[in-house]
Specification:
This protein is an alpha+beta fold and 196 residues long. The chain has 6 helices and 5 strands, in the order ααβββββαααα. The strands form 2 sheets. The chain has a 3-stranded antiparallel sheet with strand order 1-5-2, covered by helices on one side. β3 and β4 form a beta hairpin. The chain is elongated and about 55 Å long. 24% of the residues are buried.
Length: 196
């Protein structure tokens, strides 16, 4: 019995090259290969775009955001989105680059540490298979369009992309453990009473 590993980044790049009728490569580090260089850029862009939506696999809840010695909160370079917990009403933080800025108090200096829901950009090897597959197929369609491949190839990859997105959504439903009765503000207000 053969064990199949998760889709590698090289395999994703070869899916993209194949969608544009380009020859596959043996390594992702081939110098001077323009289609491969373009494919890498598109794969990274699509990965960043898809992960920006926020999934159970790349989101952290109640993530601590600590101030430095100057009171500033600097975010990690792979931070895509920060939503500070509602309990921190004395501040209204937003991201500006890799820093938090308090719009309410018009400063980037904070007097307290915060907690937030943070969406992180994960490297390829940290992604689950469903995300790898969807990102690869979506990137392949984008690459085929960019390389001006015929309509038939683009239509075929659109159908594959739709199927891959359904698989990713199914994974998200399994991992997120969302409950519309408790996770919906409207439903919880009906079930548990309105705040006065």
């Amino acid at each position: 019995m053969t064990t199949t590993a998760l889709l590698s980044e090289l395999e994703a790049l070869n899916i993209m090259l194949q969608a544009a009728d380009e020859a596959p490569v043996q390594t992702a580090q081939q110098a001077g290969h323009l289609p491969l260089s373009i494919a890498k850029g598109i794969l990274n862009d699509v990965s960043r775009t898809v992960q920006s939506k926020g999934y159970a696999f790349n989101m952290e809840y109640d993530f601590p955001l600590f101030r430095d010695v100057n009171g500033r909160i600097t975010l990690s370079a792979n931070c895509l989105n920060v939503d500070v917990n509602d309990e921190f009403t004395s501040v209204a933080p937003i991201t500006r680059g890799l820093q938090l800025y308090d719009r309410k108090n018009h400063t980037d200096i904070f007097s307290i540490d915060l907690k937030a829901t943070v969406t992180f950009l994960l490297g390829w090897d940290s992604l689950p298979q469903a995300a790898r597959n969807y990102i690869a197929i979506r990137a392949a369609r984008s690459f085929a369009v960019r390389m001006q491949t015929g309509d038939l190839t683009v239509r075929a990859t659109q159908a594959e992309e739709d199927s891959a997105l359904m698989a990713l959504d199914a994974l998200e439903a399994d991992q997120a453990d969302a409950n519309f009765l408790t996770d919906s503000w409207s439903c919880s207000q009906v079930l548990y009473g309105r705040e006065t």
